[in-house]
């Protein structure tokens, strides 16, 4: 008697599990394309933002020339003379030196007014 009840319970569990499996698979089957109805076009995804937004390049400062760069020091020249500058130094007529760095394979001095490049 106990064996019959146990067997009955196992059968009920198998049927319940099988129906749950087919119920879960039914939505997947509904997505099949048969070709009888036109498929609606999926909305195009929005373009991803570029990893590096293009920054506007500062203008080149006229009347100034970069003569040399060594050990974080730049030697810049104007009609008023030559200046040895570090990043952070104020320069008369240019404002502050923001950075001394390589850009596009050549050295530049970035200031508040623009770039100083070698000629």
Describe this protein's structure.
The chain has two domains: 1-31; 65-117, no CATH class. With 119 residues, the chain is α+β, with helices and mostly antiparallel strands. The protein has one helix at residues 2-30; strands at 65-70, 73-78, 81-85, 90-91, 95-103, 106-111, 115-117. A four-stranded antiparallel sheet has the order 4-5-6-7, with no helix packed on it. Strands 1-2-3 form a three-stranded antiparallel sheet, with no helix packed on it. The chain is rod-shaped.
Provide a short characterization of the protein structure.
By secondary structure, the chain is α+β, with helices and mostly antiparallel strands. Helix content is 24%, strand content 31%.
Please specify the SSE layout and strand pairing.
Blueprint: H1 2-30, E1 65-70, E2 73-78, E3 81-85, E4 90-91, E5 95-103, E6 106-111, E7 115-117
Antiparallel strand pairs: 1-2, 2-3, 4-5, 5-6, 6-7
List keywords for this structure.
119 residues; 2 domains; alpha+beta; rod-shaped; 7 strands
Main sheet: strand order = 4-5-6-7
The residue fraction in helices comes out at 10-25%
Q: Work out the number of β strands.
A: 7
Please state the average pLDDT score: 80
- β-strand percent reads 25-35%
